């Protein structure tokens, strides 16, 4: 029996038990059988859940790009590694074989080295969904540089903050990006960002849209001529198992974004293992994850997971609504996709459109369909299951986080019976628990609580870049000795998990994780604003949308509210990005506060949802009368 592949339910339970009883043996076997190592480990793990210190595969030596590319060359050299599907369907799709990927990544790795990038240096990658994005990431991994991919929808302020936090030496970007019928000038955004980021020495620029750009002498270089000159072979750096692989920023409920740090071997082992099992991956499959590589889903399931398994993976540059709402279904038919992995927000948006868009295409190449990023509601689940999966493809509702690195709770296709809206059972190796308010573990089934993980797993983030204390406090102090996810969940009568949503001040909008604090900070910068509070409220398509309660300064009170709202949204767009825009803005004269000055968001959340039934205990409020006023003014 191989631990790498789960065959049936009996095998699942057997493996699950084994992973709990003998975790060292379990992970040792998976790591041993499925990867190439320069040197094996002395010890499988050394962990401390109190101090939040985690080491996996101690002293092993490995390179993940070698595992993604080189080791497949003998058997799969001419097999397609990446299919690039451009934004414009009339532009030809590109098939990049493993041989070609090797050459492209080698050239890029040589360019990076020539430009002075060394092992341990941080490189910010701010690119659209084009092959160069994958190549740049793999090249960083090849030479041991730490990649920090920033989603190419973030504003210059957000890019600059991320660059500065991890002190990136280089930025890799493009002249522009295509998104549906729009072109976005990425280089302009980078130029603006770099005005406040002096640590960046070099900018490599990919030509994609042919938009005219300004190239700063001595700093900015067109990438293609460098690649043309570079050698097509390269030696991969020997990395320690715990050497950093990448930083990826995620929003917290307070303060600046958290640079989650993932390290090499643990991330590699767990990502590959989950890809194989959760998507029932087999040799000739064509896998398509529609996420952006700028998020963890893209890191783990467009790039690393598929390539580690020698799979064919799709990089899609476009959007689901361009040229029309049939784009996803057209691409599935065109490339004979076998596994399709997307977000509930996309499903809800497409389910609103005519069924003809789906029914025009034959989707019978599909074998497994997946969902990620936020809870999938019952209606969306059934639409996806019926009209895309044809009721024959298992729908895997996968729960995980940037911090977990890869999928944690999910059905295994053809193994775990699915149940609408349930992420179902933990993968072998993962030990979820539900906790009550008194920090006790809730035993038994049909219970509700805060979702924690009580035992470490290989791909957990090791720290927050530059701030281990914050890492420890955010994830390991609410429930001492356990990893706290920030999510609430319920466990049904058979032990299936259903994720009910965040229990902290993070709101998931269209599958994007947004912390309320940075948005409030952006609003408060408007000269007319005195104070603000943001909460999420249910939205048909986005899952949640943002509702802002804003107190104006006296000087702002006479202002036209429509204009003011527009200006505030522009500020948010500039500070964070358009994804954080407010759907509703209510101007109020005060906010419900406790005597210690804390805003009672629980009440604001209920008002935003339009649920006035029971505000709970308001006796601790300093200004209970404000609740009535806000209720009356609700939009
Ligand atoms: O609240 C959970 C939600 O997304 C959060 C993690 O967001 P992020 O780090 O951006 O990673 C998203 C992609 C893995 C979680 O804390 N979430 C993710 N998947 C699900 C989910 N909520 C419900 N069901 C899911 N399948």
Provide the spatial order of strands within the biggest beta sheet: 12-11-8-6-7-14-15-23
Residue windows where pLDDT falls under 50 for at least 5 positions: none
CA-atom Rg in angstroms: 24 Å
Bound molecules: adenosine-5'-monophosphate-propyl ester
How does the helix and strand content classify structurally? alpha/beta
Strand percentage: 15-25%
What does this structure look like?
The protein has 20 helices and 30 strands. The protein has 635 residues and is α/β, with parallel strands linked by helices. Helix 18 links the parallel strand 29 and strand 30. Helix 5 crosses helix 6. The termini are far apart. 52% of the residues are buried. It binds adenosine-5'-monophosphate-propyl ester. Adenosine-5'-monophosphate-propyl ester (PRX) binds next to helix 11, strand 20, strand 24 and strand 25. Adenosine-5'-monophosphate-propyl ester binds next to helix 11, strand 20, strand 24 and strand 25. It comes from Flavobacterium ardleyense. Belongs to the ATP-dependent AMP-binding enzyme family. It is an enzyme of class 6 (ligase). It holds the Pfam family AMP-binding.
Task: Provide a concise account of the structure shown.
By secondary structure, this protein is α/β, with parallel strands linked by helices. The longest helix has 17 residues, at 98-114. Belongs to the ATP-dependent AMP-binding enzyme family.
